Amino acid sequence: MALLNSGTPGKLKLGVLISGRGSNLQALLNAAAVPDFPATVALVLSNKADAAGLERARGAGIPALALPHKDYADKPAFEQAMTRALEDADVQLVCLAGFMRLLSPWFVDHWRDRLINIHPSLLPAFPGIDTHQRALDAGVRFHGCTVHYVRSEVDSGPIVAQAAVPVQSDDTADTLSARVLAAEHELYPLAVRLIAEGRVTVEGDRAVLAGPLPIPATALNPRPA
Ligand code: GRF
Predict the structure, then answer these.
(1) Which one of 26, 174, 210, 224 is most buried, by most CB atoms within 10 A?
(2) What is the pTM of this model?
């Protein structure tokens, strides 16, 4: 078994930060419920008290706290409260899963290389919001999602894993978003597994994977008839 950040053998302890529906949180909870998954969800934090994801966590018996950002005097106080809660739960890896607050350089540096995000595009294409409509407007043939370590610049940082989905000619932002979301639910647990198994090393701007890892065949869109 891999030796994890704490220096003790065991499962990697995740803290998951959410703001809303929490479907990626659910994917992580489902993965963590499988006995051989090398990570466990230790704490779920939301900056919104009514985030549906909090109920998903509680339903799975996982500690879930609302820390409404509006209850804090400023961003540093809010982020310090989150950090205290995460550290009290011995969290080793923080997973952003639809967390809708911009994080300060202080928080990003404090959790450097222990903080990952899932973003609904094939980064570095389409950072920011409205990624599905922007992909349609750009006429790309593949779209997808990315799990990456977080750096201060929005939606930047070493890429851990990506999933590509084909764009279909009759797609709307909604149909494309649903296809990407299904891929997100596969990708996030895979990326966490790779990190928890100690197979991901950050080297400069890149995350290097230790193999052996199967590589998919070339995908064409469209394919020759
Ligand atoms: C996902 O599309 C994720 O990529 C983005 O925010 C959305 C969160 O959805 N960062 P959910 O709350 O996990 O359902």
Answers:
(1) 26
(2) 0.95
